[in-house]
Specification:
With 277 residues, the chain is an alpha+beta fold. The protein has helices at 6-17, 24-35, 41-56, 65-79, 97-103, 108-121, 159-170, 184-200, 206-217, 225-236, 240-254, 259-274, and strands at 126-131, 134-139, 146-149, 155-157.
Length: 277
């Protein structure tokens, strides 16, 4: 199979991210295509068909939020074995939707994407919930909300369970604002952040860090510091001029608020250019 050309992949990702209603599954699959050069258009279509097929196995409108949660747990968690373990945090595949569909293993947020996309196709009132440190899935309106943890096979969470997850991750109590539905682009941004963190711990995988940063820069809203991170990665990978130019662009952006930082970044840019000599 032949995957996407880099420019075409970036165009598709940017176009979808800027659409009126971004498609979560497509954006996640395009992230997977950046990582996996064998994932082509047919592979994207096959993954979408897999999600449709899973949705077709969900009982027809089982009832209220809890009934939906249980139906999805019985199908995805119990019958099909979608879940996670600590070892999944060590694998890049755990952040790639097409691989998660194939392996039935992944990080909490990618397993949540599977739950959301299958449940949505089946007609459930479903959404992601971006708890600090642990992504989960919600069903129903705020006054009747039911949370499930796909990483734990779709276990239905009590209020105490959610409190424990948040406190364990942050040391702070659970706040009602943490339980609101996550926006599609926020989910994708968090997935890319996870990939960047994975790559940062593995300096030999600067290729992964670079494409993750470049996709994050295509999202409509992103921190300017990503420009600096991209510049550093380019210089690290021997693209000294392009890296220096990116760092200089970033310095120009931050100069009005932090002149000292801007000067430090310009020094890094000069050092990158000097490596050409």
């Amino acid at each position: 199979m032949t995957g996407f050309e880099r420019a075409e992949l970036r165009r598709r990702f940017a176009e979808e991210a800027r659409s009126e209603r971004p498609d979560l599954s497509l954006l996640c699959l395009l992230v997977g295509a950046a990582a996996d050069p064998t994932l082509d258009e047919a592979g994207l279509d096959a993954a979408q068909v897999d999600l449709d097929s899973l949705a077709g196995q969900v009982p027809f409108r089982p009832g209220g939020p809890r009934a939906w949660a249980v139906a999805l747990r019985e199908l995805l968690g119990e019958r099909l074995g979608f879940a996670g373990s600590p070892a999944d945090y060590e694998r890049l595949e755990s952040s790639l939707l097409h691989q998660v569909l194939e392996r039935r293993r992944g990080l909490p947020i990618l397993l949540s994407v599977v739950w959301i996309e299958v449940a949505r196709r089946a007609g459930a009132p479903v959404y992601g919930v971006a708890l600090p440190g642990h992504f989960v899935v919600g069903f129903g309106p705020p006054e009747d909300q039911v949370l499930v943890d796909p990483f734990d096979g779709g276990r239905v969470l009590t209020g105490h369970d959610a409190e424990v997850l948040v406190t364990g991750a942050t040391g702070a109590p659970l706040e009602p604002s943490m339980l609101v539905p996550a926006e599609t682009l926020d989910v994708v941004r968090r997935i890319l952040n996870n990939i960047r963190a994975w790559a940062a711990a593995r300096p030999e995988r600067s290729d992964v860090a670079l494409w993750a940063v470049e996709l994050a820069l295509l999202l409509p809203s992103h921190p300017a510091r990503l420009r600096y991170e991209r510049g550093q990665l380019l210089a690290q990978r021997g693209q000294f001029v392009e890296g220096a130019e990116e760092m200089e662009e970033y310095a120009g952006l931050v100069e009005v608020v932090d002149a000292e930082l801007a000067e430090r970044v310009r020094q890094e840019a000069r050092a990158a250019r000097a490596l050409l000599n």
